[in-house]
Amino acid sequence: MNVLVDTSVWSLALRRKSHNLSAAERTVAAELAELIREDRARIIDMVRQELLSGIRTPSEYEDLRASLRDFPDEPVDTSDHEAAAKASNTCRSRGVKASPVDSLICQVALARRWAIFTTDPDFGHYAKILPLTLHSCRT
User: For the chain, which terminus, N or C, has the lower number of CB atoms within 10 Å?
Assistant: First the structure.
């Protein structure tokens, strides 16, 4: 099964210095590396944009942009955005607010029958409402 990787995981693996990671964060980064080796890690355009936003220097931006170029964006179309809005409305009606990006991640994963790999606890709340599969570290 392919795995849609959330911004939180890409960010800790690609934007943070490995010596600053906790043991749990190193495990997440190692799991992402394994998913990449298995050619199962997937990304969408909005996650790419989030990752590239807020970079301090032009050289850091270019380095990260170059690293991400190895991962093509999964095509997202109008029906994905419409279904993401519907998923967001469903969550909101149950008392859980979902950001537009999180809703789109959920929808893309649902539509393609992929798991989501994230460290963001909000996805656990979404998974109580939407039939999501959350990927866990295997080690």
Answer: C
In a domain, 106, yes or no: yes
Q: Quote the pLDDT of residue 97.
A: 97
CB within 8 Å of 77: residues ≥ 6 apart: none
User: Does residue 122 contact residue 103 with C-beta atoms inside 8 Å?
Assistant: no
Which segments of the chain have a pLDDT < 50?
A: none
Q: Taking Cα atoms as reference points, which of 43, 40, 38 lies closest to residue 74? A: 43
| pLDDT of amino acid 17 | 79
Here the tokens at position 59 are 């050289």
By residue range, what is the domain housing residue 12? 3-127
Predicted local confidence at residue 15, as pLDDT: 82
**Are the C-beta atoms of residues 26 and 18 closer than 8 Å to each other?**
yes
**Closest to 13 (Cα-Cα) out of 51, 44, 40, 49:** 51
Q: Closest by alpha carbon to 115, among 138, 99, 136?
A: 136
Is residue 16 assigned to a domain?
yes
